[in-house]
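Q: Second attempt. The first request was missing the SMILES, so the protein and adenosine-5'-triphosphate are both included now.
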Amino acid sequence: MKVIEAMRIALRALAANKLRSILTMLGIIIGVGAVIALMSIGRGVEKYVTDQFAGLGSNLLFIAPGQISEGPPTLRANPVKSLTLADMNAVGDRSLAPHVSAVAADFQTRATVERNGKSVSVQASATTPSYPLVRSWKTTTGSYFSQLDSDERQRVVLLGADTYKDLFPNGDYPVDQTVQVNGMNFRVIGVMEGKGGGPGGNLDKSIFLPLTTAQDRLFKQKNPNGEYKISVIYASIDDADNIPLAQEEISQLMRERRGVQYLDQDDFSIISQNDLIAVFGDILGALTIFLGAIAAISLLVGGIGIMNIMLVSVTERTREIGLRKAVGAKRADVLIQFLIEAMALAAVGGIIGVTLGWGLARLVSTLFGEFQAVVGADAVITSLVVATAVGLFFGIFPAYRASRLNPIDALRYE
Amino acid sequence: MASRNNGETPVVSLRDIKKIYQMGDVEVRALRGVDIDIFAGEVVAIMGPSGSGKSTLMNIVGCLDVPSEGAYELDGQDVSRLKDDQLAAIRNHKIGFVFQSFNLLPRTTALANVELPLIYGGIGGRQRRQRAEDALRLVGLGDRLDHKPNELSGGQQQRVAIARALVNDPSMILADEPTGNLDTKTSVEIMELFQRLNEERGITIVFVTHNPETAEYCHRVVRVRDGLVESDERQTATAGIYAHGALHGAVNGHAPIAVKEKGV
Ligand SMILES: Nc1ncnc2c1ncn2[C@@H]1O[C@H](COP(=O)(O)OP(=O)(O)OP(=O)(O)O)[C@@H](O)[C@H]1O
Ligand SMILES: [Mg+2]
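A: Got both inputs this time. The predicted holo structure:
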């Protein structure tokens, strides 16, 4: 009853000074707006990336040379012992690693592809024939090269979806057309299904060729023993539940093969999809802390703005306060009136901020199309509650001052 | 004078009231021992030179302030040692204030201004609106309910203030120079209104005034000097004083001749 009256009085006072009220709310509006927008975009990105990782296949392990924590191989002081086809075959051997159902090898480098004088720079993946099976990736046109193609070191190539569009802008049938990879003629035998961007770059801007052909004729990346170098081994695990077990098996096997001494660290990494998601989760966690800091600072600034305006308002309305007290307002009545005014300022600012942030998030997701911003109810409720609490906190001092005014002095105030 | 009031309890009973302000090292003795009884239905003028302590006295009588020393009984209740919030409740129920500068809430309708004491009295809804409307009708502003102060003349604004003072059915109305900001003609109208409220409804009214003509409307004139009551005179209420002739006299600058009787 009394509170409803106080709310009515407070809202009337705010409406009487619209411009000032809006300016006062600005800190809260910007703070809440920024947090809602960034949080929604962050969640959208998170969902998008998680979906991408999920697209990798949940029971896939990546085996790469060196420790990923040491950064990319090219930046390291000590050259890293590369992986070889023999490593891949060992991992794929059921008697050595019983939970691995299939393996593939991939050597990645940059290459230039040309056709009819049009040239594009792409990522070249030189793989074993098992690659599409392990990555659960299909072709839209033609088919992946066979074991025979590989054994015969055929100069055949498959194009990623985007590479196809770049080289065949008219949509010509690509199979049996010739393209030049780093100046050497290759016969196109297929086009891969579009996958979109993902971790490790846009796979659609790639080409795929047999590892044997590539390392014997094109890139000639072999280790001192004459074995093909490999960037990554993919291992399919028979069941997602067996991933930790398989990781252990592969680790044992690789340590033995690579002669890693007892107590020494692995000189290779075995990464699961969950590991990648966890790394990404850490990045998001840092982002969230950063957002929290922005929110805290802007809410603090907004709160101080509210306190400032409320102090001005109390001074301006000294006579009003005196009169209210003269006709019977108790301290609590005046206190509640000004507290509600401060909270209403903050809450209305919060609502405007949420609307603004939501609009911004929508705008960003329409502009970038790739992901959908997710405005969570929890984010909205939390920011409104926090904004109102900020109003309450910073309203306490001005409201307390108003409630303690002596009616005689207040009525005499000019 | 005992016969006049038949031994009934006074509305206001002040006994040896002192008010001392401490200004650094200096003591300002604004009131130095005031005894006054005011009875129901009386209209009292408090007069005196500037700085004599009139407003200080009114503030204590109006429960806006408490005396440094002395006893104050309002309607038989000792109110001289009450806390802020208790005083606020007493003001809400028993006292109506009218100020020299009206003190209406700006940008707020006459009706809402008059409703203010009822809000703090915890009276809501239809009853509140009804009582505020009745009070505004009583002061002759039944057709100005939704006007804001800046849409009203000075006299009308003071009528709204009077309605606000009346709306809670107080034991008395206190008015510190209520006509101080009004021209002569409007002052007469306002005094006429006070007089009517007193005659028709028996409301007790205490004025502070510098204007001897205003004092002519009162039953009793208390003169204050240097924080003490200098004189307390009852004016024999002859019919003429309250008659229209007297009012016209006041307007024309001819103060009606009051028959004075020395107070006790
Ligand atoms: N809050 C205060 N602090 C200190 N001194 C005060 C305070 N209020 C009033 N006084 C002093 O008390 C004395 C009486 O003041 P008061 O306001 O009651 O006079 P008044 O009779 O109403 O004068 P006026 O006719 O000018 O309104 C003055 O000397 C004044 O300076
Ligand atoms: Mg005064």
